[in-house]
Amino acid sequence: MKKLAIGILTVITIMSCKKEAEKKEKSIVVEYPTTTKVDTVTNYFGTNVKDPYRWLEDDRSPETEAWVKAENKTTYAYLDNIPYRKKLKQRLEKLWNYEKIGAPFVEGDYTYFYKNDGLQNQYVIYRYKTGEDPNTATVFLDPNTFKEDGTISLGGTSFSKDGKTLAYAISEGGSDWRKILVMDTESKKIVEDTLIDIKFSGMSWYKNEGFYYSSYDKPKGSELSAKTDQHKVYYHKLGTSQKEDQLIFGGTPSQKHRYIYGSVTEDDRYLLISPRVSTSGNKLYIKDLTQPNSKLVEIIGNTDSDTYLIENQGSKLFLVTNLNAPNKKIVTVDASNPTPENWVDFIPETKNVLSPSTAGGYFFTEYMVDAVSKVMQYDYDGKLVREVKLPGVGSASGFGAKKEEKELYYSFTNYVTPGSIYKYDIETGTSELFRKPNIDFNPENYESKQVFYNSKDGTKVPMIITHKKGLTLDGKNPTILYGYGGFNVSLTPSFSIANAVWMEQGGIYAVPNLRGGGEYGKAWHDAGTQLKKQNVFDDFIAAAEYLINQKYTSSDFLAIRGGSNGGLLVGATMTQRPDLMKVALPAVGVLDMLRYHTFTAGAGWAYDYGTAEDNKEMFDYLLGYSPVHNVKEGTQYPATMVTTGDHDDRVVPAHSFKFAAELQAKQTGNNPVLIRIETDAGHGAGTPVSKTIEQYADIYGFTLYNMGFEVLPTEIENFKD
Are 116 and 123 in contact (CB under 8 A)? Predict the structure, then answer.
């Protein structure tokens, strides 16, 4: 039987004679599609758990396809009723339409850079002869020609050591599965057969002869959802077919690794192999490529730390590690005896998290100080040369270049400063502005400040709040609270065109640095994992309560948003505290915590989550917050728009399908529950600009409309009076 929900939305109309806003009611009838229930039950440690929508996990079935079409039809019928959705799209397009140019980099005889004229679906690679006028640059590789609608994207590039050959990966429809093509950079012609069925891979060249890459065996069943948990590293020699590629590491059933990466040092002397069981912690092996029959030598044989090689001087290795150093440090050791007992501190651990790079014969150490960048320059003796003077308070990145380079290019941004590129003289330490975007946005009209608030257990958590200057703290400002809180990922300040449009409408954009992230090192990450995952949700809830208590906003004007692990964050928060927000926007979320590890590479997330098969304590804990399993009958949930992509093979869309079905079946009250399923789109990377703009127009339109705005806030004088 079809379920009807009447969305009675409080909206605002203008009384032109008084120039003030008055609330009145308007209703939209939402008729949700029928979602069949099945009698699927799984027993976990003596507890039977129903899974009535498991059939939606079959992404190849005609029934799932029909459900997707029906849900999208319902969603777009609703969105079509939002009167200013088109205006939001037009403003997004106008603001997005400026030239964007990436930092230059040298490969062989040419200097390359990425450029987007404004609204191109994908960035284009340009190049010019190094030393010549950059204005002579011509198109080198244009991914917009791969497919007219932009749904085939560039998934990574790697040049041979002499720059004469390029290996580049492409993604079709947003999938994590890639193809690799090999091009002669002078003629721009493809010179080999395409390599296929490659996933979660870099491309690391050995001299000019070939490259190392990683992949899984093609899974049985659906390519987009079947489990992939046996990663392998291969070597592809130019001039040979893929079936002749040499297996370097992996494929041993007794030593299963879900992620393995191979990389070659800049001097071609060593191959490093980094096997992982989960997304945190890795083993590390080294092979001397100057000795034809050399064996892999173990540096670290367990996954208790994250360790990688950043540089070498002959046999002297420079390793970055968090072994006995939660905030990371750099150590040195000789390749002949590289195990931890022989390590010597080179740049010791500090109270701030280290993210180092190398350029021009120096080390550059970026530190996060309360999620804000601080950069130091060291020589190869470990002596501090200088602190790099940055243009302001924000995020700096890109302090990397080849050893022979005399200058590097880095980018700087924050929530109100569009990303600008600076040229840095490596010897003198002077920076000069290289390129500043010409965008229709004035940072002087906005402010961004960091606050600290207490979470439920008293932990102090930082949050950056950004908005127009002169904001009135009356609790009526439309606010998006965005979070992630997992996988050691750090949310540092960066400019977003979409966020700029939101703030133009008087909106507040707030980002807390939740536990589970990497802002304060491994201890901060671990404090939001497995049986401590609730800390992350508590941190997010406390952030919302801070914004409400300080009158930035109120529950009627608060939206919560996050993607992937952040989608889990939104799903858990809205099911635990449905009263706290007016709108919930979970994107590509991990929402079924009992089954996430059975799809694609999901088992590799167990470091952060644990699995329902580990033990009864872990099962009970996961069941206690799993969003799909905690939607309750008779509860009024906030207006919700779930977003996902039909080609998402990172977090399969079944998570979002099942969560939306549960919400639609059990929602009480007037708030709509919609799911927007993008076609030919994956987890997010490579999404065409046109699709991104449409998605933001829909998200912002849905959010403002359910906060009660019949017209855009900028069109209402004193709209909160």
Answer: yes
SS3 710: coil
Residue at token pair 């958590």:
461
Here the tokens at position 443 are 């940072």
What is residue 109's predicted lDDT score, i.e. its pLDDT? 95
What backbone torsions phi and psi does residue 73 show, to the nearest 5 degrees?
-60, -45
- Closest by CA to 517, choosing from 532, 534, 536, is 536
CA atoms of 159 and 180, how far apart (whole Å) = 13
SS3 letters across 369-410: ECCEEEEEEECCCCCEEEEECCCCCCEEECCCCCCCCCEEEE
User: Which of the residue ranges 58-72, 621-635, 703-717 would you say has the lowest mean pLDDT?
Assistant: 703-717
Given strand 270-276, what is the order of strands in its sheet? 259-264, 270-276, 284-288, 297-300
CA separation (Å) from 362 to 182, 357, 378, 379, 612? 32, 9, 6, 5, 47
How far is 142 from 216, CA to CA, in rounded Å?
Answer: 28
Does residue 354 contact residue 328 with C-beta atoms inside 8 Å?
A: yes
Distance CA 153, CA 146 (A): 7
Residue 452 pLDDT: 98
Contact 609, 283 (CB under 8 A): no
Cα–Cα dist 250/258, whole Å: 9
On whether the pTM is more than 0.85, the answer is yes
Q: What are phi and psi of 353, to 5 degrees?
A: -75, 135
Catalytic residue numbers read 564, 683
Torsion over CA: 679, 680, 684, 686 (sign): negative
Instruction: Reply yes or no on whether the pLDDT at 6 is more than 50.
Output: no
Helices 616-625, 565-576: crossing angle, 10 deg rounding: 70
Token digits of residue 12: 């605002």
Listing DSSP states for 69-93 in one string gives HHHHHHHHHHHTT-TTHHHHHHHHH
Is 273 a residue whose pLDDT tops 60?
A: yes
- Distance, in Å, from the CA atom of 414 to the CA atom of 241, rounded to the nearest integer, reads 46
Q: pLDDT tens across 534-548, in order?
A: 999 999 999 999 999
Give yes or no for a contact between 75 and 7, defined as CB atoms under 8 angstroms apart.
Answer: no
| 448 membership: H or E segment, kind and range | strand 446-454
pLDDT classification of 279: cutoffs 50, 70, 90: very high
What is the percent of the chain with per-residue pLDDT over 70, rounded to a whole number?
94
The pLDDT, as a whole number, for residue 716 is 67
pLDDT at 227: 75
List b or e across 233-254, with b for residues whose CB sees 16 or more CB atoms inside 10 angstroms.
Answer: bbbbeeeeebeebeebbbbeee
Q: Are strands 558-563 and 583-587 parallel, antiparallel or unpaired?
A: parallel
Burial of 187 (0-12, 13-18, 19+ CB in 10 A): exposed
What one-character DSSP code corresponds to residue 135? G
Q: For tokens 């490259």, what's the residue?
A: 211
For residue 718, pLDDT over 60 is answered with no
Which of 18, 16, 26 lies closest to 708 in space, CA to CA? 26
Question: How far apart are the C-alpha atoms of 689 and 325, rounded to whole Å?
Answer: 41
